[in-house]
Amino acid sequence: MEGFRLVALVTLLFEILGTVHCQQVLSTENDICRFFKDGVLLRKPGFCHIGIKCENFKSTTAIECEKDQFYNRNTNECEKTSSDKYCATACTSKTQGYIADTKNCQGWYNCKGSTTVSFGSCASNLVFNVNEGMCDYPENYSCKKKFSFCDVVPNSVPFLHETNCAGYYECVKDKLVEQSCEYGNYFDVETGTCIPRNKVNCAKYPIPDEVCGNKKTCN
């Protein structure tokens, strides 16, 4: 019995850690492009009609579809429908009236059962207050939204693993998969590839500036 409890506890711990790794808090302070090389196109976290481009680890708007269209993160095109669960309407058979968007703090839907009567967003300095059913100031209603990487990242695009220098992530069939570089290599976010580790300044194991063989030239 004790062995069974231990196995169950370990399994639960791995599930919790997996959730932490898979999700990021939606915040303008934490730009998702810090994980990607220049030129990568992503869906903007919290929005289904906007595509962003990563440049110098910062995101810029690359394409903005019509409000009733969807940005396809794998084809980089605007489409009339989306099969992604992330972009599914928040309206269900049990919803009535104004409800919050599940993707971002400004968004709202006006629902009549599973039918979306209308939808929109509050001003950029406001959030949708679920309790009041209206746009409100952030100090009056605390809101934090999370997204999973594979809700916004195209399949087969490698990106930074912040706690493993020799590892990286990819979305494979919309599922987050941890990959490993060959022995002696680290993942280089600037190129999006695995290269010799003496050429990568990994945050977990930073290379001292005075060591020969790194990017600094030794005299």
From TrEMBL:
One GO MF term: chitin binding
Chitin-binding type-2 domain residues: 30-87, 88-145, 147-204
Keywords: Signal
InterPro entries listed in its UniProt record: Chitin-bd_dom, Chitin-bd_dom_sf
Pfam families: CBM_14
Span of the signal peptide: 1-22
GO terms under cellular component: extracellular region
Transmembrane segments: none
Name listed for the protein in its UniProt record: Peritrophin-48
Source organism: Bactrocera latifrons
Taxonomic lineage from the root: Eukaryota, Metazoa, Ecdysozoa, Arthropoda, Hexapoda
